[in-house]
Design a protein that fits this description.
- Helix content is about 40%, strand content about 10%.
- The chain is an alpha+beta fold and about 230 residues long.
- Strands 3-6-7 form a 3-stranded antiparallel β-sheet. Strands 1-2 form a two-stranded parallel sheet. A two-stranded antiparallel sheet has the order 4-5.
- Strand 6 (about 210-215) and strand 7 (about 225) form a beta hairpin.
- The two termini are about 30 Å apart.
Amino acid sequence: TPSLEEVMAAIKHAILPKFYTQAWVDSGDLEQVWEAMGIPQEIYADNALEFTGTVYAIALSSVGISLATSPPNTPTSKGRIERGFGTFNQYIHRLSGTTFGTSNLRHLSYDGKTYACHDIAWIWKVLHMFIEDIELKWSKGIQDQPRRRWREGVRRFPVVLPLDLEQFEADMSIHKSRTIQRGGIEYQGLLYSGRPLEELKLRNPDVQSFSIRIDPEDLNFIRVIDPQTMRPI
């Protein structure tokens, strides 16, 4: 389901290096480790709630990304990505287990759950193979090979990566406020405690509410912002 958490995870994935693709290169599924990475100057999105919230704007501005939104009800203003999704959807609907969504094939009464035989890990790998295939093909739109165009671009405009990964992870996480109780900090039924939290409370006896950062992909820990240094703990 589209949500702020999913959007933030997608942006973090886009920015950080894709070292995990080395395993697929070693197995022969990909030709090269994915090169696309770096902090973009601007992100252009539609007007869905997950793209227009305050937390989203604060997170992106904290890492130097400006925001732009397309005019409402004008999908042609972001035709490149719409075209990409359309191509991938056509590919997905050729796989056994498809549900067809709202397409004109729903009248076939095809039960996707009965015929599904692909797990999410397989879909994840095939998605990478699909995108790399597009990268290596000649594109009429740009009159070039997308991967060659990327390499030419980063020679002129070098990739910018986060200098402080811990701060970047905190900035690009979900922002909440919590009180440090006797047992620690509670979030979604989970209790986070420890000596660093106790020491933080002792150093800031007058602070009632602390700013916390949550990575929805890893709830084994949270980051708490030290109000004196503004650094994550």
